[in-house]
Amino acid sequence: MNLHFPIFELPAGAEALRGEVREFIAAERRAGLWQRGGDFATHYDPAFSRRLGARGWLGMTWPRPYGGQERSTLERLVLTEELIAANAPIAAHWIADRQSGPLLLRYGSEAQRREFLPRIARGEIFFSIGMSEPDSGSDLASVRTRAVKVDGGWRIDGRKLWTSFAHLNHYAIVLARTGHAGESRHEGLSQFIVDLKAGDLEVRPIVNMAGQREFNEVVFSDSFVPDERLVGEPGNGWRQVTSELAYERSGPERYLSFIRLAEAALQCAGARPSPRLREALGRTVAKLIALRSMSIAVAALLHKGAMPNLEASLIKDLGTAFEREQVGVYRALRTELAVPSAEYLSALAETTIYAPSWTLRGGTREILRGIVARGLGMR
Amino acid sequence: MTGTLQPVLSADPMVRDAAGRAFTDLAADWFRHEATSPDDGARTQKRRSVLDAVAELGFADALASPDAREAWVDAATIIRAQARSAAPIDMAVLLATGDRPASIAGDPSVYECAIDAGAPADAQAAIALALGRCLQICAAMEAALDLSLQYVRDRKQFGRPLASFQAIQHSLAIAAEELAASTALSDLALACMVREGCASVRLPGLLDAAALVLGHAIDVVYDASHQVHGAIGFTREYPLHRHSLNLLRWRDHLHRLRSGELRSAERLGDAALQAQGVWSTVTALMKPGDRHD
Questions:
Q1: Best label site of A2, A126, B128, B166, fewest CB within 10 Å?
Q2: Is A9 in contact with B8 (Cβ distance < 8 A)?
Q3: Substitution target from A70, A365, A378 for chain B, most B beta carbons within 10 A
Q4: What residue numbers bound the domain in which A142 lies?
């Protein structure tokens, strides 16, 4: 078996940043600027994103000419894990900072980097993902949205689905078919930066089970995208999309979605904590240490230029299964708490209703297990 | 930044003096005797003699020296390789049972008596043993999974290899994920040992975490590897049983070295309650301490 997660220690500089981030979060909370709640995919606050940008905490690993701070991947990991562990409102900038920016840095033109990256880093513009379609969920290669070359640009026709915050964000990176699929079905796909505020596309709301509007459907009808908004080479879309996956699947957001509930339960332990609660908290700590160690390994491998897609998929499956299981653990402990606080009850309701989305977003568990199985030589 | 970012366990060749080498040998010997000796007077005698030798040579003192700590990297390699091969252990089981096809109920020596190894009086030696058990367990889980992967590729039913069935793929994928988490955790504990030594204040917490995560992973691997093998995996002639029996024995001993699975969980839970945070406890336990040179 060739699955290995090397052990990396976070450098001292990264640990120093942790204290800084915790102080920042504490100050924000003292000022009453936001409440704990939601997660990286739901808790949306552009003003908070701009405050992070002002501190140099967006696009912080990027080169300075593009608005970055040239900090290390592991420093970014410290920042994001602290923000996620605190349920800070990071949803507005999350996609731009995590994957759209790195995608442009890797495959974008010089003009695209100069146009978009500094604005992402200041928290001025936010991005959505334009991958899923009504008939293309897990089977991404089956996308039918089509871009046809015309004079000076491309005309796009088709529909994108589950496009989170397309009604608030500024741009989406849309995967569209531009040529023949070929035998692998991975050819003939291209990515475009689409201006969501342009008049010739429609953003329709989809309300989720929790009653929130996060999802949208984006409808393109003969929508024009200029040549300079094509990302990378035409037909290279599949490779570009899969290069985002390791970033998308291995981070702390894949094992901490429940953390608000565990922290709330801990705060309700009372003077003589129940042995059952003590045991549950201990098991939570144990699994988190293992997951975090693997997640740090993938961050370090990415930093070294590797593309650990298999390892990232493995972390996401293990981490999201753990998150979902934890909701049940802390629900059962309700009667073991001295007094269940309002925060515990709110966290319980929110994590319970959102839990099904955790093992879907960013790749379903079935797809992830298939990737792991391929890595093990079974397919 | 890039220059300093190296895997902790693939450090440059280390200077080792006689003490470090002696410790490597001792650790390897300990685990070899522990794993291979049948449960009879001779085994007990051997174990005692190893313990005596350790006591004479100052095992705890050796553990405290930087060279001995670094020798753990070597020891870990030996320990893992031995655990993976499992060949001598199979002999031990056969000796213990007199090669009779006895049931576990009829001949407790297969499993129950094999776990009677207790915790050494020396607390630091107990820490070292627990770490060794973690390394052995991960190696044995890997060996069991490798056997399973080979088997499902070779074995055909309904006209195609078992590996082509999605239910089989997912079952072994989940087991591999649990193994990956276990290995990450025991490597983390090993890195802590190498860096900070037996007296590290966070090593007991990492070993408690490992006992919990590995303990669960063994259930998943034990279940999945036997399930995909069918009846052949449940025989003495096929090698899977060596790894399975080792896993069961070593898990019991690991938990005993940590004074019980629930105690491990409660200690970590108490640490979180003390720190008033789950997440802050995780980051604190994973933050490298000072090198103890």
A1: A2
A2: yes
A3: A378
A4: 129-235
Q: Do A377 and B182 touch (CB under 8 A)?
A: no
d(CA B124, CA B121) in angstroms, rounded, equals: 9
Q: How far apart are CA B80 and CA B78, in angstroms?
A: 5
Preferred mutation among A10, A260, A283, A314 to probe B, highest tally of B CBs within 10 A:
A283
Q: What is the DSSP letter of B282?
A: H
Q: Which of B174, B188, B246 is nearest to B216 (CA)?
A: B174
Question: pLDDT, tens digit, for every residue of B148-173?
Answer: 999 999 999 999 999 999 999 999 99
Is some CB atom of chain B closer than 8 A to the CB atom of A5?
A: yes
Q: Is A196 found in the same domain as A120? A: no
CATH number of the domain at A342, please. Answer: 1.20.140.10
Q: Would you state the pLDDT for residue A134?
A: 95
- Which CATH class name applies to B16-286? mainly alpha
Q: What is the pLDDT of residue B208?
A: 98
Say if A241 falls within a structural domain. Answer: no
What value of ipTM does the predicted structure carry? 0.95
Quick check: is A5 in a domain?
Answer: no
Q: How far apart are CA B20 and CA A377, in angstroms?
A: 40
Listed by start position, the domains of chain B span: 16-286
Q: Cβ–Cβ contacts within 10 Å for residue A31, how many?
A: 8
Closest Cβ opposite residue B187 in set A7, A280, A379: A7
Average pLDDT, chain A: 95
Residues A229 and A150 occupy one common structural domain: yes
Number of folded domains in chain A? Answer: 3
